[in-house]
């Protein structure tokens, strides 16, 4: 059985958003004000930054380190500029490196690019960030320079494998006080994805989960381990599928029943259990054909998959045809399942800072723990991609950005692996 590391820290009460933070003495207040002013002034002067970029789509060889990437700046009233302390990788970073979703994401970045050949490069990957605010737009009310924050970076924005990242105020949340930046960077993107899938598509929430049975297919990765903890915090009964050597991990974060998909006919094994109210599928493929049969018919039960063909279809067929084909495919499968008494839904990532506020409260009360499998220094981003590309995720792969970014590329040691054995549940979480 593979080893894993669940990071648990002393929990403190969540401190809600506040633009002005009261300090114990006026002297401390003055000092903090000067520090924040200095950070803000510095951010306006910085035009270049260190970052890992890609200039074309391809394999790991397209990753390029530069100290001359264009630094983001405050361009609108709701912008928040963050100095990155830690980032983490998600399977979607590997997919985007190879060009997954390039047509639709390019359009989302710039509506004026429709029908034009303008290049989207260079692209900075990295969908999670934990860091410190260095500047804010004039309309920002919840953050000031010096605040420690975390966020999920939308795929259509420049990512967090860089010294600085710019997001809207709505996409940012105050970091849980009980977590380090390295720990915090493992959570936002999987949290936003899981919450969007379970709440928006699955219809679940803290007030209606007490009598619900939920099945998670492919549960040992980031979305799976977060979903288990969230659902248990809400009072649901959680059944998961994974390989035998991930059983300790998923049980450690709260799974009630575990089915080893490598041990035989997983559909038949799950079919012997009581029917489910919601299925969250992180794997897709063949499971899409048998998993809806595990739901309670004619009771509002929902099958939610995170493996959808939308971006792949627009990549291969173009924006119009790919969108139409995807819509038709969704309609056909949804109608078929509706005739059998269950709902079929696609789940997508959705950026939402206020949702992360709720997650922060759960973290600081000990109900959600970050699950970090391995950490890498900023100098070794390609090795981190290589590790993630090997599959068999047991939590998240985190990049420590701040120290290495300030020192250039001097250090190449210090990789910390928190797992010693690779297993395999084959989950392909692209959201």
TrEMBL record:
Family annotation (PROSITE patterns): QOR_ZETA_CRYSTAL
Alphabetic keyword roster: Membrane, Mitochondrion, Mitochondrion outer membrane, NADP, Neurogenesis, Nucleotide-binding, Oxidoreductase, Transit peptide, Ubiquinone biosynthesis
Cellular location(s): Mitochondrion matrix; Mitochondrion outer membrane
Keyword Cytoplasm: no
GO cellular component, one term: mitochondrial outer membrane
Residue ranges of the TM segments: none
Pathway named in the protein's UniProt entry: Cofactor biosynthesis; ubiquinone biosynthesis
InterPro entries in UniProt: ADH-like_N, ER, GroES-like_sf, NAD(P)-bd_dom_sf, Quin_OxRdtase/zeta-crystal_CS, RTN4IP1, YIM1/Zinc_Alcohol_DH_Fams
One biological process term in Gene Ontology: nervous system development
GO MF, one example: oxidoreductase activity
Catalysed reactions, as listed in the record: a 3-demethylubiquinone + NADH + 2 H(+) = a 3-demethylubiquinol + NAD(+); 3-demethylubiquinone-10 + NADH + 2 H(+) = 3-demethylubiquinol-10 + NAD(+); 3-demethylubiquinone-10 + NADPH + 2 H(+) = 3-demethylubiquinol-10 + NADP(+); a 3-demethylubiquinone + NADPH + 2 H(+) = a 3-demethylubiquinol + NADP(+)
Enoyl reductase (ER) domain location: 58-399
Primary location recorded for the protein, binned into one broad class: mitochondrion
UniProt region (Disordered), positions on chain: 404-431
Family recorded in the similarity comment: Belongs to the zinc-containing alcohol dehydrogenase family. Quinone oxidoreductase subfamily.
Stored PANTHER family: ALCOHOL DEHYDROGENASE RELATED (PTHR11695), RETICULON-4-INTERACTING PROTEIN 1, MITOCHONDRIAL (PTHR11695:SF294)
Name listed for the protein in its UniProt record: NAD(P)H oxidoreductase RTN4IP1, mitochondrial
Organism: Esox lucius (Northern pike)
Gene for this chain: RTN4IP1
């Amino acid at each position: 059985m593979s080893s894993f590391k669940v990071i648990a820290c002393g929990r403190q009460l969540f401190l809600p958003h506040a633009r002005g933070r009261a300090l114990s003495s006026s002297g401390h207040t003055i000092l903090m004000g000067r520090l924040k002013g200095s950070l803000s002034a510095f951010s306006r002067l910085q035009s270049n930054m260190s970052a890992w970029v890609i200039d074309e789509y391809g394999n790991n060889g397209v990753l390029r380190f530069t100290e001359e990437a264009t630094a983001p700046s405050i361009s609108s009233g709701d912008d928040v500029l963050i100095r990155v302390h830690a980032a983490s990788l998600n399977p979607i970073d590997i997919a985007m490196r190879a060009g997954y979703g390039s047509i639709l994401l390019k359009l989302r970045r710039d509506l004026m690019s429709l029908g034009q050949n303008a290049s989207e490069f260079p692209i900075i990957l990295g969908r999670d960030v934990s860091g410190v605010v260095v500047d804010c737009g004039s309309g920002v009310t919840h953050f000031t320079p010096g605040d420690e924050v975390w966020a999920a970076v939308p795929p259509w924005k420049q990512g967090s494998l860089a010294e600085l990242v710019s997001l809207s105020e709505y996409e940012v949340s105050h970091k849980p006080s009980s977590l380090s930046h390295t720990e915090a960077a493992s959570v936002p993107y999987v949290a936003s994805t899981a919450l969007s899938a379970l709440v928006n598509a699955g219809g679940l929430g803290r007030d209606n989960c007490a009598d619900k049975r939920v099945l998670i297919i492919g549960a040992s990765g980031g979305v799976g381990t977060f979903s288990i903890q969230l659902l248990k915090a809400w009072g649901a009964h959680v059944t998961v599928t994974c390989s035998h050597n991930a059983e300790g991990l998923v049980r450690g974060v709260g799974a009630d029943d575990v089915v080893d998909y490598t041990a035989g006919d997983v559909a038949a094994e799950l079919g012997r259990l009581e029917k489910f109210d919601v299925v969250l599928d992180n794997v897709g493929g063949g499971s899409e054909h048998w998993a809806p049969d595990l739901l309670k018919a004619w009771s509002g039960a929902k099958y939610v998959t995170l493996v959808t063909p939308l971006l792949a279809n627009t990549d291969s067929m173009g924006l119009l045809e790919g969108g139409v084909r995807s819509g038709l495919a969704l309609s056909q499968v949804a109608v078929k399942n509706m005739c059998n008494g269950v709902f079929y839904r696609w789940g997508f990532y959705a950026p939402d800072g206020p949702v992360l506020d709720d997650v922060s409260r759960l973290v600081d009360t000990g109900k959600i723990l970050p699950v970090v499998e391995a950490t890498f220094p900023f100098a070794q981003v390609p090795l981190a991609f290589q590790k993630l590309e090997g599959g068999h995720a047991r939590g998240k792969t985190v990049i420590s950005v701040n120290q290495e970014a300030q020192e250039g590329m001097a250090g190449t040691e210090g990789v910390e692996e928190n797992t010693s054995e690779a297993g395999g549940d084959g989950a392909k979480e692209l959201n």
